[in-house]
Please model this.
Amino acid sequence: MATWLLFSFYGSRTEAAAPVGADTLQLQTVEVQVSRLPSGMTMGRTGRVQLDAQSVRRGFRVLGEADALKQLQMLPGFTAAGDYGSGVAVDGAHFSQTSTTLDGVTIFFPYHFGGVFSTFNSAALSRLDVSRVSGRAVVPLRLAGAMLASTPDSLVTSPQGEVSLGLIAASASVALPAGHKVTVRAAVRQSFLDLIYGTMLDTDDTALRYSFTDANMGATWHINERNRLTASAYCNFDRLKFADTNYGLDARMKWGNAAALLRYEHEGEEWSLRQTAAYSRFVNKVELLLPQLVCALPSAVEQWMSLTSVRLGRPQLDIDLRNELDRLSPQHGHCTGVVAFDNEGSRITAGTSALSLHRAFRLGDSFLLEGTARASLVVGDGRCFFEADPLVSASYFRGPSVVTAEAFTSTQDLHLVGFSDIGLSTDFWLPSSRRLPPQRAYGGALSYMLNGRRFTPSVRIFYKRLRHVAEYTGDVLSLLADDYTPEDMTQSLDGFNAGVDATLLFRLGRFSGWAGYSLAYCRLRYPQAGGRLLPSSTEPLNQLKVTAAWQLSRTLTLGAFFCLASGRPYTAIKNAYIMAGNVMAQYGEPNSARLPAYHRLDLSATWQCTPRVLLNFSLVNAYGRRNVEMRYFTYDAAKATIGIDQTYSLYRFLPSVSCSYRF
Amino acid sequence: MKRLCLSGCAAATILLAGCSFVEEPQGEEMLVIEARITSGGFPTVTLTRTAPVADGEEIPLSQIVPRWATVELSDGTSTYTLTGRYDSSAFPPFVYDTYELRGKPGATYTITATDKNLRLTARATIPTAVPAISGVELQRVEGSDSLVSGALRFSLPLSADTLHVMAWVCDHSCDGRSYYPGFLSMMKTTGGDGLRIPVNRGKHRDDMESFSPNFRLDDLVDVILGVVDRDVYDYWERFQNNVYFSGGAFLSPSVSGADRVNVAEGGLGVFSAAAADYISFKVAPE
Model:
């Protein structure tokens, strides 16, 4: 009788399986059918990705900072809305449709400004796991994927740590043993971006000042071989000032996440238990500064969460129960100065309870069938929604090849809306309600992977039908009205998300990397366009990404990353006209035009000077491509002409150097 | 070989499929009207043509200002032809007006404008609730020797329905003779005595680089305080949002319904009919 080894990818779903004979169970080494990339990325058969934090620190750096989410965007299918945009769109799905968690706790906005890097300090992470479909209740209810960041929880026997210094930030992390059973960890990162890059980020029309801080702290107590207790806390603060003379409008923004968790784990012979209690908060404060007028537009979200995960028997059955209680403060406004408005806003309480069962079944020697069933109860605005989400995955293994078919439905309980197109911290969360029912997706995917020694090609095709996707139609002044209700300014749209991506990994001696192409559509039916299907603001369309690393010696590695992508969709100006002494724009249909194609080449060199010291040199946008980020109309008073002008990305010829020391 | 060809065809199909599905919008040329008639006041109309803008092109202002348009105003019984004239203080510097007709509360007016192949009609009714200005409040801006903020005190008949109030401001010192909607000089009320509305300068072409909503000492200021219907109020609110509170991808503009109100298809803009009171003052803080 054949025996199967099942490898759980990150405790979410069985990722790889291999039939082995009963007499081989004692082997020390097992070949797993996933592809490990030179950068430390591991790619699974359904497009799943795992990034090892150690490798992230040795990989590409932007402005001297190693960042897991930024490196994720070097893969096809993972995109951001340009150089100013925050958020990672997975397969073109909106940023909010992919959950981001740190040790299972929701982090509502894990980005620093401009999408340069995430708020996750790589020195404090152990790994990042990314899935494109999330079926189990271990992750929050979202339509698309899940990005799960984890911090280390192993014991250390002697003090360990790392100090890193770059051109925009410095960080330090330390792990200290406290007796034989307890390890305490702390990490902090502080930026000083303005000192060196401040003037480089200024243009004739704009000025940017920015700083941020990240901090992680945690302790793990290995009570005995079977029981473990973990407590951790995390926070980040961002402060930004932006002045744009094109609009005579200055903005001051502050945002930050805070999270804390307590987790108990028991590992038994036949069963295991993981119980987590957590709190997470995101607060955003934005002030619009006009002459003699200051408009504050705050928003916030708080979440209390409990997660119980039980693993039973062999073959194992995974049972997860996640309960969330949310307190949401949708964005509202108050102004002081030449006029006074004071809209106090509202606090809304909502809740979600989700229970999931997951099991993998063997069918013969070559087939693996996995099933996940999730039932969710979403409560908001005095109304309950019950949703059932099955996820079925069937894999066929033949030699080094594996073909996987997936079918699923998914639900999203919270909606992220706002008046920015590129995913800023000003976006705010709304609960499901009668007028904004939970978002739903129904879809499937088919993927193929061939694990070769030198080349590993993979292809994935997916389709999702989307329902009730929330999109905001309000503006700043509507926030100030006494009778403002966010639901009045939010429309619920249907559409679809479909595409294909193909990746070729290669390992040719000291030369390795990957090339990937993806084509993804995300179309929504806009009522203002007569119900026509138009691109969503996050639709990536074409993307070609190539990454290569050349290991010159044991200590020196050169790297290059090239990206060629369709421009971001935007709502174009089709006409200009004059009204009340101002040049005004008549806009076309939503997202009906695209910015020019985006392309960029980044270069890096990593030198392991000594076993403890690592030096990294990076050059972002090495050939200085002027990628267009925004378009707007202008009036030239001297020539009495109206025209279109563009704002280009600030990231051109941006060099950086960083040094880290491990002990 | 066959497999290779099939793979190549599939890859080419995918690449071609992703080439271009999105068309650049093509702007349709239309007339744009900014018209105002107030109770006791004369009608005034500014006309422009929309300019289809494209990357790298510059549209001369002269190309979008109709100088030989026919503009007629009807009060239901008579039709009046408005005369076009050059006005260097206005932007664009060409306005149509007549001194043969003054607006009346409760009356409905229809404007028909024709320029070459383009035509539009706009219809509006002056509300019956007329505001009465009782005073001006002027206060020196803290930290400034020359800037002054202003507000009007006024009353309105009590109403069961919401009344929409806004102010047009003409600042002679820097704006010539043109009235612009005052910056956030808007409010909703159900009427009563002792009402107060901020009165600020409105942004226009001369303020592109820097804009101050405040008046300067010794400015001569004219204000039209008007009650308008909800559609007109909403139009000007969206206008203010787009002029003052939107920019690039950070703050998306109001797109939905922002270009047209009470103007029939074929044109853009607004016909503001206001039950109004007027005041002129010299800026000298108390």
In short: The first strand of chain B starts at residue 31 and ends at 38. DSSP finds three helices and 16 strands in chain B. Confidence is low (pLDDT under 50) at residues 20-24 of chain B.
